Input
Amino acid sequence: MIKRIVKIELKSDKIADFQAIFKESKHNILEREGCFSVELLRCGDPDNIFFTFSVWESEEALNAYRKSELFGKVWPKTKACFDKPAEAWSTTLEDAPWE
Output
């Protein structure tokens, strides 16, 4: 299982557009095979920074989504809202060394 974190810094005048794209796309992303959850988080200050947090069965499931028709439609609209390029990390849960 992987947890995907994507940092997105938006143009101030595109925040509402981005939120609408996410709201419209979220249920379709959740229907993708191997996607367990997807959330949108917003930074308080500055308020134009958002993070998507998603949980995927595997890197293969995530990559299948990234190669899908859905991603091909959503990503260009989303990218048009960016003030800076997105940053992304795929993470896995590790046992805490103190446990």
Observations:
- The CA atoms of residues 38 and 67 lie 18 Å apart.
